[in-house]
Amino acid sequence: MTPTDLTIAQARDLLAKGEISSMELVEAHIDAMESNRELNAYITETPEKALAMAQDSDARRAKGEGNGLLEGIPVAIKDLFCTADTLTTAGSHILDGFKPFYESTVTTNMWREGAVMLGKTNLDEFAMGSSNLTSYHGPAINPWKARGDNRSRVPGGSSGGSASAVAGRLALGATGTDTGGSIRQPAAFTGTVGIKPTYGRCSRWGIVAFASSLDQAGPMTRSVRDAAIMLRAMAGHDPKDSTSADVAVPDFEAGLDKGVKGMTIGIPKEYRSDAMAPEIEALWQQGIKWLEEQGARTVEISLPHTKYALPAYYIVAPAEASSNLSRYDGVKYGLRVEADDLLSMYEKTRAAGFGDEVKRRILIGTYVLSAGYYDAYYLKAQKVRTRIAEDFRHVFGHVDAILTPATPSAAFPVDEPPSDPVEMYLLDTFTVPVNLAGLPGMVVPAGLSGAGLPLGLQVIGKAFDEETVLRVGRAIEQAADFDGRPEGY
User: Fold this and answer.
1) List of domains in the chain
2) Is the peptide bond before 158 cis (omega within 30 degrees of 0)?
3) What is the pLDDT of residues 341-371, one digit of tens each?
4) Catalytic amino acids?
């Protein structure tokens, strides 16, 4: 087994025994990054920084001081997290040249736990997309290919670069952010594990904002155990973030193998549709069977407002985006297109700096917040959001977790995206309700499509009960015994 094939848990144990060094891990990953740039997983590679951090980690370990949760572990950081003195673009032309003088809280937590940064990963521009096709830096490419079809596939979005880096063995783990499924959907498309924690579990401070009431950081890894380790390192209360929850961060790894015996798992009838691919339905049924065989009881539940989740999301999220993105005007940082007067400079900078999808969402968001339409659209969407959250609270009175499909299909070819934006938005059908309710959700790889592409299952849990989500995910992982990997990586 090469260093790039290790899981975080395996690398941690080998580092503790002195059987491998952080420098060896990092050098192997730098080689992999340089050899697989066709994936376009990284926007910015930071090999010098990685080697320096690895050297520091090895020195701490030699002194008996290296005991961080991620001590010496090479990871990738989604280019939405501000990293001090390192280019941070959010996948957008408008942030060209932006190097923050500060560090996001999540990455600060990770560096404190000994993690090593390999670079900043590709993403849909400002995290707006479900495919990683909207990045100014070009699409990230899924290392998986369909059987008998050599066309490049999307890794999902918006955290597509992180997903590609983890699946393609270019990092042991990576950070992602999830506003409507942007960790979980790419995890499903790339055969990796992705968890969106409860809203407030991880600080949003220093993360470039898309929709502030929905955005949440989380880990992307190759195993459930790795996700538990990495989430613990990322999480924690942050007084700089008013939405950060002042709750204890448990040892998520400790209870992973307790199993699901005696648990009640809800199966929402609203997640079934005639449009869902038969192989997705079959995988869902297999997941139900796996949990029942391990002693869990499954019951049908109803989440009646699920059908309104997608339209509500695509009012709330663009509304918040139109407000958050008003700060990008070419005055203080990033791109500036010179003009004869200030207003023209604003207009030309934003016209040149933002891509089509970002402009589309700014226009939608500004419209639904405008006088005469605020009550009809935005206020009504917020009321629907409350009903969706109430649906979940009701069912969690008698179930421990919920099992659903992760995506309506496997990854599609880069050159054959959905024909219109609404069709693309439908890729988030199964993930969006979790964000609107602020709940934790995780995707675990569970099988392959008929074409040999990864498919995942989603576990949804109660607020701040990531421990149960991880336990159920671990049970699925053990039953599925998914050992597929993209050919050549």
Assistant:
1) 1-489 (3.90.1300.10)
2) yes
3) 999 999 999 999 999 999 999 999 999 999 8
4) 78, 158, 182
